[in-house]
Amino acid sequence: MILLSIVLGPMGNVLLGKGMKNISPAGLHNLGGIVSMAAAALTSPFVWLGIACLLGFMIVHMLLLTWADYSYVQPATSLAYATVALLSYFLLGENVSPLRWFGILVICLGVFLVGRTAPRTTGVHA
């Protein structure tokens, strides 16, 4: 489930980003421009795929929270930062600097430490 969360969230955001980069930001100063941009967004298949991935992420995240403490789930799913960097590099053509990769490595090491603890420290409350 954590793996699904690590993939669905970033994939949804990257797909939304890809869909929105194809839409001109010009004309956001008036209602007509906003309506035009919204119409363009709602007809983008990348935007809809992104929304589907983010809905899947939300369901998986809720299920994870029934299984483990939030203080375990949130750090464990922080591996998504590495997924975001990889997807941004390969799908969006963004340049990820060595300093960013180093920061992501530090986050992943923290996730490794959190992963060595018990997922649930509290009892199940009805």
Q: What does it look like?
A:
Helix content is 73%, strand content 0%. By secondary structure, it is mainly alpha-helical. The chain has one domain (2-115). Helix 1 packs antiparallel against helix 3 and helix 1 (2-21) packs parallel to helix 5 (80-91). The chain starts with a helix and ends in an 11-residue tail after the last helix.
Mean pLDDT: 87
- Which structural class matches the secondary elements? mainly alpha
Question: Can you summarize the main beta sheet?
Answer: none
Strand content: under 5%
**What's the assembly state of these chains?**
single chain
Furnish the topology, listing elements before pairings:
Elements lengths: L1 H20 L9 H12 L2 H23 L2 H7 L3 H12 L6 H18 L11
Helix pairs in contact: 1-3, 1-5
TL;DR of this structure?
With 126 residues, the protein is mostly helical.
